[in-house]
Amino acid sequence: MTGQDGKSSGSGRPADEDASLENRLKSLDAGLKRATNQTEAEIRREATPSDSSGIGQAMRLSTEFVAGIIVGGGLGWAVDKWLGTAPFGMIVLLMLGFGAGVMNVVRAAGLMKSRTDDKSGAQN
After folding, report:
1. Which residues pair with 26 in a beta bridge?
2. How far apart are CA 77 and CA 25, in angstroms?
3. What's the average model confidence in pLDDT over 89-112?
4. Taking the complete model, does pTM exceed 0.70, yes or no?
5. 105 or 1: whose pLDDT is higher?
């Protein structure tokens, strides 16, 4: 139906509806661009290779291992000097240091559960 001025006599005038739809379209377009930019930024952040973290982890594991051996050897040398049991204190404590270094590397790499995890698992 048309009114006296030749426009439809519906709930709103077509020009108002077009402007409203245009505003909603612009708003949705802006929101879509923001969401796309955020998603692309997250993908770029996740896609970057983390060589530094891999190298850092390798350095940590090797340091754990070498530190165990050095501490065991140093304690063995000190025990031999203090008690005069050369070379037996050095040999025994160097082997213990090697074992401790291996255990620290395995623990740091997450391949070995701590004893507290084992105890809590046994209680369940």
Report:
1. none
2. 79
3. 89
4. no
5. 105
The pair of structure tokens assigned to 97 is 């240091």
- Contact of 28 with 36, CB cutoff 8 Å: no
Place of tokens 């409203």: 20
pLDDT in tens, 48-92: 555 557 788 888 889 999 999 999 999 999 999 999 988 999 999
The residues facing 8 across adjacent strands are 2
Per the structure block, which two tokens stand in for 92? Answer: 């025994």
**Helical H runs in 48-114?**
51-83, 88-108
Q: Which two tokens stand for residue 10?
A: 């519906």
Which token pair is 43? 């993908």
The whole-angstrom separation of Cα 94 and Cα 98 is 6
- 103, two tokens: 């255990």
d(CA 16, CA 4): 18
Question: Tokens representing 61?
Answer: 């594991």
CB of 93 within 8 A of CB of 76?
Answer: yes
Distances (CA, A) of 19 to 3, 6, 9, 11, 15: 21, 19, 17, 15, 6
Average pLDDT in the 12-26 region? 83
